[in-house]
Amino acid sequence: MGFDCKSHMKRIDGDAGYVLEDVPHLTDYISDLPTYSNPLQFNPAYSAVKQYFVNDDDTVAQKIVVHKDSPRGTHFRRAGPRQKVYFHSDEVHACIVTCGGLCPGLNTVIREIVCGLYHMYGVTRILGIDGGYRGFYSKNTISLTPKVVNDIHKRGGTILGTSRGGHDTSKIVDSIQDREINEVYILGGDGTQRGAAVIYEEIRKRGLKVAVAGIPKTIDNDIPVIDKSFGFDTAVEEAQRAINAAHVEAESTENGIGLVKLMGRYSGFIAMYATLASRDVDCCLIPESPFYLEGKGGLFEFIEKRLKEFGHMVIVIAEGAGQDLLSEGMDGQDASGNKLLKDVGWDQTAGWPVMIIPITIAYFHHKNTNQLRSYSEHEAANSFFMKPCVYVPAAILGIILGLNGYIYAYSVACLPVSTASLILATQLAFTALFALLLVKQKFTPYSINSVVVLTIGASVLALHTSSDKPNNESTGCTIGMLVNNNFKVISREAREYELGEAKYYMVMIGSALTWQCYMTGAIGVVFCHSSLLSCIISTVLLPVTEILGVIFFHEKVPS
Hints:
This protein is α/β, with parallel strands linked by helices and 559 residues long. It has helices at residues 106-121, 135-138, 169-178, 190-206, 232-251, 269-278, 299-310, 356-372, 388-414, 417-425, 427-438, 445-463, 478-484, 490-496, 501-528, 531-553, and strands spanning 10-13, 18-22, 36-37, 59-61, 73-77, 84-85, 94-98, 126-129, 141-143, 183-188, 211-216, 256-262, 283-285, 312-318. It has four domains: 10-216, Rossmann fold (3-Layer(aba) Sandwich), CATH 3.40.50.450; 232-349, Rossmann fold (3-Layer(aba) Sandwich), CATH 3.40.50.460; 357-385, no CATH class; 403-553, no CATH class. The protein is built from 16 helices and 14 strands. The two termini are 61 Å apart.
């Protein structure tokens, strides 16, 4: 949702470089607007307090620290109650709407607006707009009183409901005019406030006596001048729980790294405050502080040093950090008009062949970058970015994994299903044995019993499998089909397929994608947890396959 709004921001220049960026006001387009005494003057709870009202000339400086010879700089109008108001309490018909994402404290803000209008200013007609901007013209309203909002601050979310998008300026202002609303309180983020500015411009064009008040909603705390945005403290508190969990996980694993990505868009306040409060974070990456990965002083060098020293570490990264290090291609906007940020954690969930694309691009990009700009005058550009002690074992494991895939494909193509299943069933015990020998995997009596039972059960099931591969039919594995020269069989199978040739190719492509997802998930489990868990999942799925065969293909399985 994009907005094209030419806001009538007022700029007033004063002496010594003083600049006031003022907000639009009703008096800008309605002349001779009557004023009334502020009802707070007659409220016994406030009338005794001197200097309570804000002077019309009070402003807040954008920059607190200035030099003695520097200009006074930009200032903003100070918020607060004035001695004179432009609405009589009896004529006020207010409404409140919440838009965009959820934020801690939304119900509290709604409650305070309602109670403040009712008890402090004597306003009794207050509506709640249900479901964001589109609620103005597509949903019913909610009557709000202090009794209705009495305990809503104890609940999460917003009692009014919220949504992104749905901004139809003409329909919204028509609804405001038809309902005779003259005070609109809009709670939302930057996209919502841009929408509020557009609503004001339409109200201004129509010459309506309607005040639009924007209340910024963001947990990111990225609003200048104000002390703190509501919801920020709760976000920091919840972030510490995630950091604590990541620290426990990382500390329990050799060379474990706990990576916690926190919200914040272009500001790192949540990440920074949560890091300072936690004291378990080794590295905090925020958008305000650029960083680089390779070379002396880079992130990779720091991670390597930290792991050698402590054996584990925790990294906290703000949502918008490192955007210049990621590939281009995400230039879209969400429903509120905010630019979509590139995900720093996307590579963790990608598998072959998807993973090879960014890896290849990153390799040539870094190679060209290093050729043009090295990190020091005497350092030559590197063609390899992995140290030999890491590269050689990784290459060996890659060859072994490829050989394993080839042998598995060949066995599926040439061996009976029962024999291939038996080989697959022994993989769990084999992996458990080498996990014990190589990485000192700790086993309990329960885990040993589980490995033995699953292995024996899968082996018995494999020995009694009778649905061997028929002759002259293609297999579902590329390497196996190449070995067995089965590609020439596909066209014949498609013609003989009972459901039709088109559905044959749909089933074949669907099966290929399913296997792709299965292998990606298996490798993902290995990287995120352990190879032992991956084998346990594969072994458990073996009897599931037999059960599905009985259900869908009515195969006969011996007791």
